[in-house]
Structures are given as structure tokens and as C-alpha cells.
Fold each of these.
Amino acid sequence: MDIQAYAKINLTLDVLDRRTDGYHIVKMIMQNISLYDNLSFSRGNSGIEITTNHPHLPTGPSNLVYKAAELLFNEFNLDGGLEIFIDKQIPVAAGLAGGSTNAAATLVAINKLWGLGLTKDQLATRGAQLGADIPFCIKGGTQLATGIGTQLKELPTCPKLYLVVVNPPLEVSTAQVYQNLTLDEVTKHPETTKVIKALEEKNKKMVINNLSNLLELTTFDLYQEVATLKDNVESLTNKALMSGSGPTVLGFVKNKSQAKAVQAKLQEELSSKHRILVAQTVNHGLLDS
Ligand code: ATP
């Protein structure tokens, strides 16, 4: 079976506290966009075998797909094996939750292929053991995430937003960004409540005006080039925002043709090592195909 696993952005990303165990208490609105990886799953004889079109993606136990499969194989003592091909289109280590969405697809696929009968909530609980973004990737759409990011509340569908996704040739470690975040120095937190109100009122302009990511300052301190990229994208669009912990920068525009025009302009201006993609928000996270 094939599953399209969609990338995630944050309309807001706020961090409220750091727990003594190192986890952070967050408040954020998570949103799927139209970029996706296609994962093909089939039952095999034994073991978990991953192949991919991506030149640098690990295919062994460090792949989140492997971890997700292992978790269900061990818990339910499943027979046989699993073969997975990952057609990777979502930039890796980009702040777009590519690994998490692949893991979510794997949990859903095994649940179907072996007829485990687990609900989405039951799959999300298992996914949370592997990564805080995985429950969102299982549920998808537009969700408010609180706690360590795994407590979800479905929000009204986001009005369709068009964006340009600009991924520079740089990998940012999410853990490093969180470790360097100094909450005492934060003077202004993202207005998540305002964005929820904007979603309820279907007020696109109000959504765009209040897009905000608390991690920007920390990532910009660590990687000055991401700050420069954001300024560049902002000068061509209505609003620029760093995605997750970076380094990808999102530029929000009016419609698809403006997105394509901005894409073309950035392709001229930036080195060819940047991936510059056109996307739009979607109201689902995983699709069977
Ligand atoms: P997050 O914001 O959730 O940390 P991200 O979008 O920044 O994630 P990913 O694309 O998930 O980044 O990759 C983070 C790391 O996970 C990379 O170092 C990558 O090698 C590793 N990884 C393991 N499995 C996968 C996978 N299936 N797809 C992408 N990356 C994976």
C-alpha cells in the first residue's frame, strides 16, 4: 500500500517553560502543507527493509520509519517482515517534520497491513514515544498542540494559504536550538489565541499577520544566514516565517501565480543549492493512495 505523508509547518510556535527533565512545554498551531513524501509498504519475509531515492537518508535503525515499525513489531509480536520505499520529496532536517510524518505513515500502514485495529488515538500514543510531532502527523489538518506538543485539539480548517518554501543548504538540529533557547530573555510571545480566533472567523489576513515563531531568535543567533534569508524572503512576500526550528523559511503570498513568481525570483538570487518550492496549506496529514 502507498501513503502520502504530508509536511508540517507551524502557524505559531511558542515555548512556555522548560521541564526539569529537559522537555519543553509548548503552545503551537500545527498545519499540514501540500509537500509530501510517498511511502510504499509491503509485507516481506523477515526484517525491516528500507530503500529510498534520497542519497543521504539512513536506511537502518536510525530511520524513524524503522523505529516506528520496530515498535509495533515488538509490541504485537508480528509475523514476517516489512519492505518500505521512501520517495523523499520533503527536505530533510528542514523543520518540516519529514521524519515524523514518515513514522506516522508507517504506524498507519502496519495497523492496516496486519489488521491491528488500533484507533488514531492509540497510534498517536505510540507515535509520541518516538517523537513529539508524530501524533500531529497521524491526525493532521490544523491542530493546537500543548504540553510537550503531543496534546492535540482540532482547530477550524485554515483558509487556504499559498506559500514559497525556501530550504537553504544547511541542517539545523532541533535539539541544539531548544538547548540554546533562553526563555528568560523572551519579551514577546506569539499570539496563538489571536490566530485561533482568526481561524474561527476564517480571517486569512488576521492569520497571516499573526504568524509567529519563538524559535527564530535562537536559530538566528546560531545561524546568521537564516536571519538573512528571512529578510530576503520578507522583501518579496507578504510575510516571512521560519519553519519549526529552521532552517527553512516560508514566504506567504496571495495566490499560486505570485508564489511561482517569487520562486523564480529567488531561484535567480540564491545559490542553486537552495530548494525553493511552491506549496499551499492542506486539511489532512496522511492520504492512502
Ligand atoms: P523535526 O523538526 O521534527 O526535528 P525536521 O523536519 O527538522 O524534524 P527531519 O527531516 O525529520 O527534520 O530529519 C531530522 C533528522 O532525522 C535527520 O538527521 C534525518 O537524517 C533523520 N531521519 C531519520 N528518519 C528520517 C526520515 N524517514 N525522514 C527524514 N529524516 C529522517
Note: Residues 57-58, 62-65, 86, 92-100, 102, 133, 174, 244-245 surround adenosine-5'-triphosphate (CB under 6 Å).
Amino acid sequence: ATSFDVLIIGGGAAGCSAAASLRKRRPDLSIAIVEPSDKHYYQPAWTLVGGGAFDRAKTERPMASAIPKGVRWIRAAAAGFEPDRNLVVLEDGGRLAYRTLIVAPGITLRWEAIEGLRETLGRNGVTSNYLFDLAPYTWQLVQGLKKGRALFTQPPMPIKCAGAPQKAMYLSCDHWHRTGVLKTIEVELNNAGQVLFGVGTFVPPLMKYVEKYGAHLAFNSTLKAIDGEKREAYFEVKAADGTVSRVTKGFDMIHVVPPQTAPDFIRQSPFADAAGWVDVDQETLRHRRYGNVFSLGDASSAPNAKTAAAVRKQAPVVAENIIAVLDGKSPRAIYDGYGSCPLTVEKGKVVLAEFGYGGKLLPTFPLDPAVPRRSAWFLKADLLPTLYWDVMLKGREWLARPTMLPHEPQPREEDPSLDD
Ligand code: FAD
């Protein structure tokens, strides 16, 4: 099998950023990315597309332009791993060999977990900003709705961009508010969880908007099935005493966020933890059992907010640590769990939630992070897309230098030795 110094599974935000960071550090490494899609997406802007505030075409670019120069693109899908032989198995049965491996195939949207959803997605008022194809349909529905009931759903965690389900609600409400129809629209967020947002600091400013828009919050309410023709959604609702009931709610429009898991080929692989994610040390991002394997992005087990913002800080850490391993040293770069969720509470204002492991606040700017700001909207809608394509995907690590441990930690006994 063809062999690479670094083989990367997935050419999304994580795979391409890690490749770019590696190239910056050591241009002579042989690096390949296994990626089946010929398109690369800037998904964070889909929330804005659904709110009529961003051009969808700007969220899609040819994969060939996202993969860093000098990195080989293998247009195929990975199907499995033979880590004891340092091999990746492709869907077509081919095999690739590696000295080090980065596993970054993202997260899988489980549309099929909600009965009847697939059949009606994109019709009958059923939409989701989680798809490139459907984000414009959200905006179409929002503009068309003048009265009735609008439902928004949030599945059990973890999902990518945990704030996105409520961002869709705020931007819709903002439009209805501005056009004077909000008072004739009943708005409800059905949340499988028990809190509006996982980091407490950000709940009060969000609650102000929930109240301003008159939205109802239904907690412990999980979407289970949907009948598009009848315009009915079926929820499993857990009461305080633990009893579970099925509740039917009619809708004029519904914005659905599906449950999400690691991809099947990861869940079934030797790399998976009990929950199916690639089982890495949350600081070094190195696999807990296979010392020459790393993971970042949505597929990794690290308990950060699954965001492109997290990837921005993870990529340099993985690049440093991969090079250490290739040089026969132990990883010294440490990731602090940084992730960010720019909460679009109205068109023109964002609450910029930035936090690390344990909900520790990690603001980039010396401003009260709980205040909705115009500057943060500008960051989200104008600056971040440019930073993504021209800085992060190019391996320029502005404000993303990893923390380095001063000394090498003791090598772990189970470290497998590398090929050469
Ligand atoms: P992805 O970027 O999804 O890339 C995964 C890649 O792996 C894909 O190219 C895929 O084709 C490839 N792949 C899949 N299977 C295989 C296989 N078998 N073999 C090889 N390759 C494979 N983040 C923020 O920072 N801020 C936000 O405001 C924000 N908002 C969001 C709003 C929405 C609606 C959505 C959907 C996402 C949002 N995100 C946001 C999250 C962000 O997009 C992801 O966290 C980020 O893209 C994760 O990068 P990744 O590389 O792990 O996954």
C-alpha cells in the first residue's frame, strides 16, 4: 500500500486545517487527505442563510481549493482501520499506509432517527439549517409565515454547534418582530435537554430575547416523528416525576435539528470509545491506545463544543504533536477545550459565547461576553468567513498558538513504535 508520513481522514474544517498547519511547520512531509466529496462547506454561515443574512453560494467551494497545496487528495471514502498494521481500508477495498494518522470525518446527521422526517424534509413547512440545500427554504418559510405556529427542535447533546437550534429561532422571530406579525405567531423551542444553553453565563441574555419574542421553551421534549402532510409533530415529553408521554403538536413551519452521532465506520472501529467517538486524550488529542493516531473536529471524543472555532485551536495542537511523534518524542502541545458559539439573537447583534473545558469563559476580546453586540455580528457575518478560508485553512495560526508543556511528559508504556 502507498504510505504517507501523515494520512488524514476527512477534508472538512478539521482535516484541511490540520494539513495546512502541518505544511507550515514541515513542508517536506508527505501528507494525503482521504475525502469523497468534491465540495467543501463553511457550515457556520448556514444559520445566517436561514435568516436571510448570507449568500449561500459563499458557503461552498471546490474541495480542490480547500485542500492545501502540496497535500495529496485521495478522492475516496474510508471504511475501516487496521491500526496494528498502520493501514486504512477504503470503501473500494483499497488500502493506504501511514506513519501517523489523523481521523477527522465529522459527525453524522441522523435524519432517519425521526420517523417520517426524510419523506417530508424540504416540503410541508419542514426545514433545517443543517443542510446546504435547505437553509434557503428556512428563510422562504420565515418570510411566508404571517400567523400560526412555528416549532423549533433541539435533539439530545452532543451536536455540532449546540446553539444553532435556538439561533434559527431568534433570527426567525427577529424577522417576524420587524414585520409586525410576531404577535400572531406562536413560537416554541422543543429542547430534548433541560437548559437553554450549557454555559450558565449566557442564559440570562438569551432569556431576555426569549421573553422579548414571547417564545415558549418546552424542555425535556424530544422530537420523535413527524407527519408533513398533516403538519403534525410528535414529541416524547419527560415530566419531572420521570413519566414519559407522547405529545402531538401541529405546526405551520418546523425547523428540525436531527440527532447526531459519530460516523458508523468510526463507531465500529477499534478507535471508538463507548459512545462511538474517536477516543482521544482531551489535551493532546492523541488516541488513548494508538500513539500515532490523532483526532480533532466533530468526530473526536474531546468534550469541547463541536465547532469550527474549536478546530481553529485544535489544528495547531495536532500539528505540533504529530511532528513530535514523527520525531520520536512525546506530544507537548495542549488544547484547552476552546470552542465558540456566536449566538445570533437578532439581525445585527450577537452574544459571542467563547468557552473551554468545564464551561470556563475564554473571551478573545476584553469585553463582557454576555452582552449582545453589533461588533460580534460583524465578526460572525463578515470577518469569520474570510478568516476561515484565508487564515485557518491556510495554516495561519492567528491567536491560535498552542500552549506547550515545558517538558516532555514521560513516554507512555503502551506507545507503539513507528515503522521506521
Ligand atoms: P466537517 O467540516 O463536517 O467535515 C467532515 C468531512 O469528512 C467532510 O468533508 C466529509 O465529506 C468527510 N467524510 C465523511 N465521511 C468520510 C469518510 N468515510 N472518509 C473520508 N472522509 C469522510 N461552528 C462554529 O465554529 N461556529 C458556528 O457558528 C457554527 N454554526 C454551525 C451551524 C450549522 C447549521 C452547522 C451545520 C454547523 C455549525 N458549526 C459552527 C459547526 C462546524 O461547521 C463544525 O464543527 C466543523 O465543520 C467541524 O469540522 P470537521 O472537519 O470535524 O467536520
Note: The longest strand covers residues 95-103.
Amino acid sequence: DEVLQSFFEVAKRAGTTILNATNSQTSSSTTYLDTKKNSADLVTETDKAVEKLISTTLLSKYPTFKFMGEETYKPGTPLDDSPTFIVDPIDGTTNFVHGHPYVSIALGFALEQKSVVGLVFNPYTGIMYYATKGGGAWKKVLEPTGDGDWKLRNERVKLPIGEPSAFAGLDGTMVAVEWGSDRSGSNWQTKVNTWNRLGRSKDEGGAMVHSARCLGSAALNLCAVAEGHVDIYWEGGCWAWDVCAGWIILTEAGGIMADGNPPSDGNERWEIPITHRKYLAVRAAPGGQKETVKEFWGH
Ligand code: IPD
């Protein structure tokens, strides 16, 4: 609970920084200053500034905890069992650069490599999702006060907003599938094949989901599944900071995070580590979750 309180405070300050960057007269804070692994993997001054704000604030309060953030991560550094903040300062950087308001600050906290506290805040809509292990998943809506602070716009609403729709299997679902920034080799081919099979009509061997969305923020996608306006979210290529915060929000709302790969040895694994990088998030009717995952794996 104490970590969650710290998340509330720092998320509001980070949200103000993002809004100020968006409203600033110069566009340097929203223009990407660099690319990472390829020209579709963007980073801005604001990603770096927000990560610094978050890490400095959290580590000054909790100096013995570790910090893993998207912008300062040193490739190859393993996640260990220590209490660790796992943070994406701007999840949806491509949206941010394009002014598309599906962007979030994703604050996760892991103990023994499991997500136990999560907060996901979209400063453009003011929607904030949060959860602690065993404490349920919640949502509230904030609005900026104009002097750098935020106030509550609505009463907080307990998730689930409604019962999950009574689906089992892919028929009639709304699915989020991301392009991600990795557009090459077998990873890209898997994404294309999955997209193709999900959307195709049944007579042509497809699954005939209702529709698919590519929204651009893994953390918000997980919250969308938790809330039930997306039924399934699949991605290969995410990092722990993309999913740590949303993971606990989803599971506290009754959803599951399964392996995004079909089991290669025939043994189903329903527990995957937060560093796994290939995920399938589902919140179906109780009893329908595993069936849905298995049907997805079949594709
Ligand atoms: C990305 C977003 C995107 C997902 C990518 C992530 P970033 O995070 O979550 O939706 O497809 O895999 O890397 O780079 O905007 O923080």
C-alpha cells in the first residue's frame, strides 16, 4: 500500500510533465531524438526526463530497492528476487510522438520476480488503473487542476466494471495484437500469420474474431482486457517494463497471463515469468479462459 501511495504521487507528477511537453510551444520534447534498435523504435527527451523523475523519486524513498526502467536498462541485466521497480515512463512512445492519446505511465513493482503492485496512468484521458496483490484492481479518473496537480473527476470504480463477457474461445471476441518495433524475421512472420488467421472467415480456416486492434500501449492493453473492452491481447516482443504494471491489474481483475507461444513440448504452462516476452492476456468467463488460450495457441 505504501508503494502504491508513492506510485500515485509520482504518476501525477509524471503525467503533468507529459502534458506540459505536449503543450509546449517548441515540439522538441515530443519529437523523437533517437531511435533504438531500428527506425520504428523511438525515444524522446520526455521519455528520458520522466524516467529520471520516477527513478529519483522512488529510489530516494526506497534506496535499497532496485530499479529497471526502459530508458536506462543495460541489456543483459537479469531481474533477480530483490524488490524491484519496473517502469516504462512512456508506454506508447510512438503514439506520444504522433499525438495519438493512447499513452501511459506504467509503474510496476515486483517481489521475487512477480508483479505485486501496478499503476497505469494515461494523462491525456486522466484514467488511472491500479492494483496490489490481494487488494483488487481499481480505476479512477483524474483531471488536471491547471497548477500542476490533479483532482479526482469521478468516484473510483471497482473493477471489473461489469462481469466479463461469457465467451470461451475466439468467436466473437475483440483482440489486441501489436506490431511492436521488431519487424523482421520469424517474429514478424508470426505476427503476420496470427493476424491473418484471426481475421479470416471461418470457411477459409480463420477464427473469425469480431475485430482486432493495434492500439500501441502494452500496459493500457492489459488494462483494457482487465476492464473487458478488449477480450484478448497477444504480443511477442514486449519487455518486463511493458507488462509488469498491467500484469497485476489484469490478474487482480480475474484475468490470466498465459504463454504467447503454443507449448512446444505439449505441456501447457500457465505460469510464465514477467521477463518471458511473449504473452497472451485473457479475461473470459470463468472456465473459458484456458479454452480461449488453447484455441489461440491452435492458431
Ligand atoms: C511499446 C508499446 C507497444 C508494444 C511494444 C512496446 P514503448 O512500448 O507498448 O504497444 O507493441 O512492444 O515496446 O516502446 O512505447 O514504451
Note: The chain has two domains: 2-158, 174-298.
Amino acid sequence: MLKIEDLRVAIEGKEILHGVNVMVNPGELHVVMGPNGSGKSTLALTIAGHPRYEVVRGKILFDGEEITSLGPDERARRGIFLAFQVPPEVKGVRIIDFLQQVLTELKGIDPAEAYELIEERARELWFTEEDLRRYVNVGFSGGEKKRLELLQALLVEPKLLILDEPDSGVDVDSLSVISRKIEELHKKGTAIILITHYGRILAHIDTDYLKVHVMKDGRIVRTGSKELIEVIEREGFKAVFSEVE
Ligand code: ADP
Ligand code: MG
Ligand code: MG
């Protein structure tokens, strides 16, 4: 479903990704790990079509079609959703209006029906009707921001969900509801790319198929199974990298 070939990406002329290859089939769960600055968010934002990230070589295919030069809106329409590492604050835009618009544009759901859907899903992620009238992410805690990203993902039900550190800056209770919702989407058949520093979030996610990619300096240097996470948690990235060098 997603095929990334020899992807090289630059920001403001500086190459950050130096040839990344990834293949994700429908419904698969891929975990991306790696030290800070290794290029995880760059990869996520490039797949989602962020205009700042310039593809200097290679290509991204989705559902058999090249999407490398498509804008983020078109990618979203095709079923790609990115939950940001740092969700942006949008002053003046209320959550409910934003979500209604997303559902109307992406799924063709009329506003009244969208409202019911949003309210129901919001409750599952501990947002009240009152919360939904707040501005998007303005004054939100880490846990609230990440729960709101998950709420969007649940409503959109994308084919491919990219989660950039959904577990960072999050309280334990939020973490448990977030991982349950990730599992719910996974069970429904959503393919997931999960960027994380911790195996903790995976403890709650029951899966038959899990692939782990480890990034270093703009490259995927190791791909393996769940055991790789245990090695990293026990011995750090060094243990993984020393085998490479
Ligand atoms: P990670 O998510 O793995 O921590 P990033 O993808 O955020 O890594 O960053 C990879 C590298 O790209 C880092 O060296 C970072 O400084 C650089 N970088 C990321 N975003 C920008 C940007 N907007 N402008 C310049 N450099 C950037
Ligand atoms: Mg980082
Ligand atoms: Mg990052």
C-alpha cells in the first residue's frame, strides 16, 4: 500500500534523509525508533506531504500511484493521516468546527451527522461537549493534545495512520486510552506507522504483525521484529548500531 523508494529529503537545501526504503501493506503495524534528530519526524512529515520537506530523490507510492508531488490535502483524501509530534495550536478555531469540517471534506458527512459522531467519539477520549468548544490545542496539556490527535484519527479512519510520538509528554492515564485507541484502529485494518522512543505503548497493543525500523542519521539502519525493541530498551541504541558498523 505504501512504498517508499530511495527517499532523499532536504530542508532548506540541507539533506536530512539519505535514501530511505519502506514498504507497508494494508493493516500492518510498523514501529520506527531512533535517537533524537535521526529523521523520524522528517520521514513522517514527508509522507504526509508537508511543503517544507523537499524530495530530492526517490519516490513515494500509495495504493500503486505515485504521490511524491501531491499536496497534503490530496494525500489526506487518499487516506493518509499524520498525528503530529507537536500538534499545532490554532487560535480562533474551535475543535468542533474544525472536526466537522474535516469530516465534511474528507468523508462527505453532513454537519449534523458529523456532530453526533464527534460527540460520541470525543467522550471515548474523555472530551466533554464543553471541551469541544475550546480552540484547537490552545492551552492544552500534553495528554490532551495527543488525545485530540487520536480523536481526529478515529473520526477519519485513514488507510494509513502515522503517529509521531503519541506517547511523548503524556500522563499514564492518557497513555492507556491512547494505546487502546491505536489498537482499535489496528484491529479495524488501518495500517500504522508508529514513531516512539518507548516499548511501553506497545504493551497494550495486541498484534500479530509488527515490524521495527531503527533510524540513524537519516537512514533506516536496522529492521526487525519486536525483540529489537527489547534490545534497545535494555542496552540502548548503541547495541543495535554497533552491530551495523
Ligand atoms: P527526529 O524526529 O528523529 O528527532 P527530525 O526529523 O525532527 O528527527 O530531525 C532530523 C534532522 O533534521 C535534525 O538534524 C534536525 O535538526 C533537522 N531538522 C528537522 N526539521 C528541520 C527544520 N525545519 N529546519 C532545519 N533542520 C531541521
Ligand atoms: Mg525528536
Ligand atoms: Mg521527531
Note: Helices lie at 40-48, 72-78, 95-107, 111-124, 142-156, 172-187, 227-235, 237-244.
